[in-house]
Amino acid sequence: MPSHIKGLHHTAFRCRDSEQTRAFYEDFLGLPLAETLEIGLTKTGNQSQYLHTFYQMDDGSFLAFFEAPSMPFEFKEQHDFDLHIALEVPHEHMMAMKQKAEAENRECRGVSDHGFIHSIYLRDPNGYVVELTTKEDGHDEAVDPSQNGARAKLDNWTKAKREAGIGPDVAPGFGSVDTGTEIVGTAGERL
Question: How many CB atoms lie within 10 A of CB 31?
Fold first, then answer.
């Protein structure tokens, strides 16, 4: 049965300052500012001033941001595992963006080889990690659940967690999980 989900329309994040955010996503990354909504009254009756901006990607989807000065939010430098935005680009463009970032003294890590993708990592003005990634040979096979055992790996992980007493209500940082499988790094290297 199909999900009827056609694709990502937009994903939205908070931003500190809409102009700083625009400068990164439009001027640096090249994503055009496609729409700006000024919101004074939400559908739930909340009256305040918000700005909602949309940056368009080549496939027609958007990265969006809310600037909401009256609402508290903890901006921090996110760890890659906590939150990152991964954008697919051609390999040549990824390398050009790496050079551009380094020339502008921007934080830029990588190139990281994950086996089926190569990536660089940037940081936007809001503290979010932005990954520029390019598909490598074997990508489609690597992400094909009929070939990669994705569900069996998840089931094994969940079983090991539960056996270690780590349920869904246990906060992260509580313990470790030993699935009994070979440990590999983020680049697929055997550890």
Answer: 19
Whole-number Å distance between alpha carbons of 121 and 74: 21
Q: What is the pLDDT of residues 10-32, one digit of tens each?
A: 999 999 999 999 999 999 999 99
Total structural domains in the chain? 1
Residue 43's domain comprises 1-71
Which CATH number covers residue 57? 3.10.180.10
Measured CA to CA in angstroms, residue 141 lies from 41, 43, 78 at distances of 47, 44, 30
- Taking only the tens place, the pLDDT of each residue in 33-52 is 999 999 887 777 777 788 99
**Residues β-bridged to residue 33:** 55
- DSSP three-state, residue 158: helix
> Structure pTM?
0.83
Q: How many CB atoms lie within 10 A of CB 158?
A: 15
Which residue has tokens 């967690």? 161
